[in-house]
Structure formats: C-alpha cells, structure tokens
Amino acid sequence: MARYVGPSCKLCRREGVKLYLKGEKCFSEHCPFERRSYPPGQHGKSAAFRRRRASNYAMQLREKQKVRRIYGVLERQFRRYFHEAERRSGLSGENLLILLECRLDNVVYRLGFADSRAQARQLVQHGHFTINGRKTTIPSLAVRPGDMVSVRPGSRRSKYFKERKDLLGKRTVPSWLDLDEDNLAGRVSAVPTRQEIDVPVQEQLIVEFYSR
C-alpha cells in the first residue's frame, strides 16, 4: 500500500502550519517547525519569497495538499474520495472531510489508541484491531454508525496497549464516537458533521481546485 515515507516535519514547513503529523513531538520544544517555520528549500528563508502574493490556484493547491497530508492520503486516492464526495447529496467539501474522517485509521487515532494517524495506520496494518469482531488490516476501510472498533484480545496483552490504556480519556474524543476505556474499544455512534471535524481547512478551496 503506497504511503509517504519522507520527513513529516518538512510537510508542516511547506504548508506553513503545524499539521501534527508526529504526535506528542509536535507539542514539545523539539518540534522542528518551532525552530524552522519557513518553507523548506534554498529559497525558504528569503523574505521576498515569503512575501510573494499567492495566486488563487496556489491557495487552492495548498489547501488540497494540507488535507491530503493531514490524513496521509496520496493524490490518486484523494481524487477518488473527492469524486465520491461529489456523487453524494450535500456540499462536496463537507462530504470529502466526512469520508476522510470515517477512515479506520483516523477513527483509531480519534479514539486515542495512537498518537498520530501514521501510527494508527501502522497499528491497523499489523492487525491489532477488529471491526465488529472481525480482524482487519485495511487502514482506509470506511466505518459506519453502529460499528465497534476494538483492540484484538491477543494485542491487549502487549506492552504498548497496556500502557495505552492508562492514557485513554486524556485526549478529547469526538462526540460521534463512544470510547470504552475498560475494553479498549470504541463505537461509531453517528456520521460526523462538519462542526464536529476540528480540521482547520477551507474545503471550498479544494472544491474549486478540482472544478477548474
């Protein structure tokens, strides 16, 4: 399964905003973005480069790239998500974010079983989770209301999940998810709304980008 394997902090610098791709490190003083908040590359530190007025296309592109990188999705798959969002009733931009939020790796991250979506993706690929009692290794699997996402019984005995159990509940869990800390599980209670998705993006710019 294709995924980005380059330096994550360079992505934050390119977008000019923290994307919180490395979990707890992003909240510490060791975050590279704090020390080098300018764009990467030989012209990144140039004041003239940073003062350039971005075109409409550039703003649309950057917003699209930002969402892609937050959720860890490559271009071809992201485009498929957008076309699916267009086919659904309602606003395409909101539908796109809802589709991305309903990915299994994002749900694992939102429930607090991982510090980042990349870590959640790895945990899913290694077979540590079940949906409604069935093991799955597909991070992009779409969850639905009523689905129960649980840590596999065999995985609960691992050191990672024993330590993780003590950390559950410390991070705010979205209202569309119900966390069962004792059983290392979570239920999808509803489809998330745009108001419940705390990703700071202007999804309309993404719609404009693909509507050119």
Instruction: Return the CATH architecture of the largest domain.
Output: Orthogonal Bundle
Question: How many strand units?
Answer: 5
User: Would you state the CATH class of the largest domain?
Assistant: Mainly Alpha
Overall 3D form:
globular
Class derived from helix and strand content: alpha+beta
Domains counted in the coordinates: how many? 2
According to CATH, the fold-level topology of the largest domain is: Ribosomal Protein S4 Delta 41, Chain A, domain 1
Report the order of strands and helices.
HHHHHHHHEEEHEEH
What is the CA-CA span between the terminal residues?
29 Å
Strand line-up of the largest beta sheet? 2-1-3-5-4
Helix share, percent: 40-55%
How would you sum up this structure, described in words?
Helices cover 42% and strands 8% of the residues. With 212 residues, the chain is an alpha+beta fold. The protein has 2 domains: 8-100 and 201-210, Ribosomal Protein S4 Delta 41, Chain A, domain 1 (Orthogonal Bundle); 103-188, Structural Genomics Hypothetical 15.5 Kd Protein In mrcA-pckA Intergenic Region, Chain A (Roll). Helix 5 crosses helix 6 (92-101) and helix 7 (104-111) packs across helix 8 (117-125). The radius of gyration is 18 Å and the shape is globular.
Which tags fit this structure?
212 residues; alpha+beta; Ribosomal Protein S4 Delta 41, Chain A, domain 1; Structural Genomics Hypothetical 15.5 Kd Protein In mrcA-pckA Intergenic Region, Chain A; five-stranded antiparallel sheet; 10 helices; 5 strands
